[in-house]
Every structure is written in C-alpha cells, then in structure tokens.
Amino acid sequence: MTSPISREIIDDEDIDLTFVDAIVRAGADRIRTCIQCGTCSSVCPSGRRTAFRTRELIRKALLGLKEEVLSSPDLWLCATCLTCLERCPRQIKVTDAIIIMRNMAVEEGYMLPQHKKASQKLIKTGHAVPLDDANREMRRELGLSEIPPTTHSSEEALEQVQEIMRRTHFIELIEKTGECK
Amino acid sequence: MTEAKKYSFFLGCVMPNRFPNVEKSIREVMPRLGVELEDLQGASCCPAPGVIRSFNEPTWLALASRNLALAEKAGNDIITGCNGCYGTFKETLATIHEDPDKLREVQQVFKGMGIKFKGEADAKHIIEVIYDMGPEAIKKMVKRPLTGLKVAVHYGCHLLKPSKTRPWQQSERHTFLDELVEATGAESIRYKDKYMCCGAGGGVRGSNVPVSVDIAKEKMDNMMDAGADIIVDVCSFCHLQFEVSQPQLNKELGEMKYKIPVFYYTQLLGLAMGLEPDQLGLHKHVVSTKEILDRILQ
After folding, report:
1. Judged by CB atoms within 8 Å, which residues 9-68 of A form the interface with B?
2. How many domains, in total, are found in chain B?
3. Which residues of chain A are within 8 Å of residue B239 when distances are taken between CB atoms?
4. Min Cα separation A17/chain B (Å)
5. Residue A1: what pLDDT?
6. Domain containing B271 — which CATH number?
C-alpha cells in the first residue's frame, strides 16, 4: 500500500553546498541564521497573491538547491519593497540575498525576455526607459527641452556609459543570456 | 528665503521620458522654494535598483558611481524625484563608504576614462529637501489652501528603506509626507496598508504585469474605500504605476471604476502656491484631473 502523502525527495546531486557560501560572500552574511519564522513571507506583497514564498526561497538556498532556485521564475516576483529586510528578526538582508541570487541566475543564462529587452535599451541608449516620440512632443508642449539633458543629448556621454558596460562585461552578459532558458 | 541652495538635478528615465509633466512641476516649484536645480549633463539611467542591480551588481554600481561623479565634478549634491534613483544612489554611497574595496573596483573600471570619483557628493530626494525647510515654512507659501481635499499619500519603498541608510527619524509609520500634504490645507486620510509597495519595482512591472497591477489595485481599493479624492506620490515609477494601472484595470473590468487623479507632490504644492495647472503639467495626466481641478479652482 502506498502512503497517501506524497513526499518530495531531494536527490544528492541536486544539492550544491557551495551555493549558500557564495551568497554569504556576496553580502547576505546572516542568511545562515534564518529560523524559518516566515515573517518575510507574511509581509510580502507579491506573496499575498502568488505562490511565491520568501521563506521557502531562503530555505531552498540554505539546502543548496541552486539549480531549482536559479531557474525558477518565482525568483523574479520580488518587487524589492524591502519590507522583509526591514522586519527580519535575524536581520538577514533578505532583499540583498534575492538580488544576489538573481545575479547568479543571469550569470547562468536565466533571464526573462522583458528584462533582456530593458537591458538592451540601456546598452543602446543609456536609459532602461528611453524617450519616445509622444513624450518628445509632450516635452516641447510643456516648454521643456525637447531632448532631456541626459545621454539622449550627448553622444560622448553615451559612449562613456557604453564603455563602462563593456568593461563590466554587461554587454557580453546580456548578449549571451538565452531568452527564458 | 535665504540664499538659494544649488543641486545637480538627476532626472532618471521615467520622469523625463514618460512623465515630463512631473519634471515640469519640479522645475517650476523648487526654484520658488529657494532651491536651484542645475542640469546634470550626460547623466544616464541611475540604474534601476530592482532591475539592473538584479542583473549585474558591478554594472549597477559603476553606472551609479558615474552619475554621482558628474555631480561631484559640478560641485553639488545630487537631487532626484524618483525613489528608485534615490535608492540606487543611497545604496551606492553606503556600499563604497562601508567597503573601500568596492570604491577601488569602480575606480578601476573608470581607469583612463577621465572620470574622477571619490563618493563625496551626497544624494537627496526632492521631498527630503522640502521637508528640511519644514511644514511651517511651506504653510507660509500657500496662497490657495486646498481645504476639503482628501489626499491618499503614497510614500513608496526605496524612499524609506533600508531604514539604516535613510535620513528619516523613524523606521516605520512615517508622517513627513502627511505633514507636507496637510501644510497645503488638504487632509491626509488614513487608509489600510498605507506603507505598502505600489507593485512596480524589482522588475515585476516589466515582467509580470498582472501581479504588478494587482498590487496597485489593492492599494487603490484601500484608498477609494477611505474616500480619497486624489493620490499624492513622490516617485516617478510609483506615479507611472498608479497612472497606467487605472486604465488597464478599467479595460479589464469594462467600466470606469478607477479614476483617482495621481498628483506628484510638487504638483499639489504648486497648486496651493497659486500656480496655474498648466504650469504644473496637470493638463497632461493619464487619469483626468479636470473634475478635481474644477472643484479646487472654483
């Protein structure tokens, strides 16, 4: 007779013990002190309406389930409101930990197509949300400079910004990420 | 007013490129408060703390440092009207001040590019500079008191948190924006989950519109239940979220349920100071401001 409760089994090969070390090194140094109290999940505005559970994410990270964490689209449901970070009774920088894991996900090639698009806009124009024709017109009507005094109006500044993104390998990184691997 | 204090005005992306009417109101109102805004020529995206920082932290830190370096070169502190940009600059400064290795990494990236960066320019939010003048001083500038106007204030997240690296006296239940709204004669109403996120940040608006809009909907339902006439915010991205989500929700519902005008604080203050709605870009809103302006100006 089989048990009516189906148990999730974690295989040895799914566990990467270096995962949490990397998260700690990148700045979320108190993550190991997590007591799974669930304060983070209880204050999470995304968790109120989706299956995203911050506590579960932290638990999985601590277990070393690197691939599962990094490949999950849930990792991208955090709106970075910072409430969990503010309220964590262990003073874990929860939001920082999520951002660190997102950096690792992108490094592994996991990136949502809309995020890739925003990055490409940044690379091309210096802005994640560049000027469009309608707003150019609105600026003129409002008596503002038609083109704002940003990288939009300086080729030299744009080139400098692009050179920085080349040096930090951002351009390379974005080009290599597969759309929603 | 005493001698004008000068800042390098950092625009970001959403304000100049999607809501130039908000930019216009800041450019009209701040000089009248004795704050001189100098353009930060050649500035880029801050870059966004929840998006670009999520993709590659070193890139985020380097580009943010470049924007701060432009202000440093101009000899000013940076001022911004967007919570996201504010968060980026506050966190960048905290990072390089706490960890000199990070500063050296950024300087290494800049090597040979002619960018000098020491992290000496501070970052201020428009509302922080206004609050430093004090609600009493603001009250004295009011020529058209907005009596009877019920305002739902929205602080946003990165303006307040992490509280460790923010200038506010308390970490929860802030009142500074409520005080500044009430200085105009309007009433700042109580509503459920006032300090909750608008749902736009962290790349959620960009990648998961239904979840993002649903968070904004919850906030706006709470505001409407409490009888709000208008929303007042201090962040260009929250502003986009409240402006753009309302027609989206109405389209889904097939009725015009969501029609709360969304004011940026300098638009509200400008009106109270006696400026004309057109000067404040109030005629260029997504959600119509006509009805409420007729009521205020009658």
Report:
1. 26, 45-46, 48-50
2. 2
3. none
4. 23
5. 55
6. 3.40.50.11810
Question: Which of A108, A128, A144 represents a domain boundary (last residue)?
Answer: A108
Asked if residue B130 lies in contact with residue B33, where contact means CB atoms within 8 angstroms, the answer is yes
A85: chain B residues, CB-CB within 8 Å: 161-162
pLDDT of amino acid A23: 98
pLDDT at A5: 78
The nearest CA of chain B is from the CA of A101 a distance in Å of 8
Total domains in chain A come to: 2
- Closest partner residue to A49 among B14, B200, B211, by Cβ? B211
Asked if residue B261 is part of any domain, the answer here is yes
Closest by CA to B159, choosing from B129, B182, B133, is B129
E strands of A33-160, at which residues? 110-111
Nearest to B207 by CA among A94, A32, A53, A180: A180
Q: Are residues B139 and B265 in the same domain?
A: yes
Domain that holds residue B155: 135-297
Residue A28 with chain B: CB contacts under 8 Å: none
Residue B44 lies in a domain: yes
Per-residue pLDDT tens digits for B126-175: 999 999 999 999 999 999 999 999 999 999 999 999 999 999 999 999 99
Residue B1 predicted with pLDDT over 60? no
d(CA A124, nearest CA chain B) in Å: 11
Q: Does the pLDDT value for residue A2 go beyond 80? A: no
Inform me whether the C-beta atom of residue A91 falls under 8 Å from chain B C-beta atoms: no
Residues of chain B positioned with their CB less than 8 A from the CB of A120: none
- What pLDDT was estimated at residue B40? 98
Task: Please give the pLDDT value at position B159.
Answer: 98
Q: What angle do CA B181, B187, B190 make, to 5 degrees?
A: 100
Percent of chain B with pLDDT over 70: 99
The answer to whether B55 and A166 are in contact (CB under 8 A) is: no
In a domain, residue B130? The reply is no
Interface confidence, given as ipTM, is 0.95
Q: Which amino acid is at A79?
A: A
Query: Mind listing the pLDDT tens digit for each residue in B37-77?
Result: 999 999 999 999 999 999 999 999 999 999 999 999 999 99
8 Å CB contact of A79 and B55: no
Half-sphere exposure of B75 (CA within 13 A, CB side): 2
Give how far A3 is from chain B: nearest CA, Å: 36
* CB of A121 closer than 8 Å to CB of A130: yes
Closest B-chain CA to A77: B204
Given a contact cutoff of 8 angstroms between Cβ atoms, the answer to whether B222 and B199 are in contact is: no
Which of B10, B28, B54 should one mutate to test binding to chain A, selecting the residue with the greatest count of A CBs within 10 A? B54
Contacts A86 to B, Cβ<8 Å: 161-163, 171-172
